[in-house]
Amino acid sequence: NISDKSLFEIAGNCHDLQEFYFAEARWITDRFISYILNSCLNLRKLDIVFSREDIKDTSTLIRRCFNIEYLDFSRIGHNDIGDEVIEALAYAYHKLEYLELDGCSFISELSI
């Protein structure tokens, strides 16, 4: 069972990390997402499907890691992913090829 401290150590020491996959993680928080995005600028794939913690500040995604090609936020508990986040991602992430948002209830058909 990996700890929050261990995740921060990995992100802090693996600046060339290109893929991060943690399905069903119960400890992924806004703070960690912000840290990994600020530390690993070569990140291309971020998959935190079915994470159970609160992801309430997805705006950190918009400010960093413009190399992102793959994002999977499906079934994340208690998130704030809405139309404004989708529009900002579309505007900023020109390399984005895959975006999964199943279960993100604040998104309208118009933004997709």
Please give a structural write-up.
α1 (4-13) runs parallel beside α2. With 112 residues, this protein is an alpha/beta fold. Strands 1-2-3-4 form a four-stranded parallel sheet, with no helix packed on it. The protein has a single domain, classed as Leucine-rich repeat, LRR (right-handed beta-alpha superhelix), CATH 3.80.10. The radius of gyration is 13 Å and the shape is globular. It starts with a helix and ends in a 12-residue tail after the last strand. The chain contains four helices and four strands, in the order αβαβαβαβ. It is 31% helix and 11% strand. One of its GO terms (biological process) is SCF-dependent proteasomal ubiquitin-dependent protein catabolic process.
Which descriptors would you attach to this protein?
112 residues; 31% helix; 4-stranded parallel beta sheet; globular; alpha/beta; Leucine-rich repeat, LRR (right-handed beta-alpha superhelix)
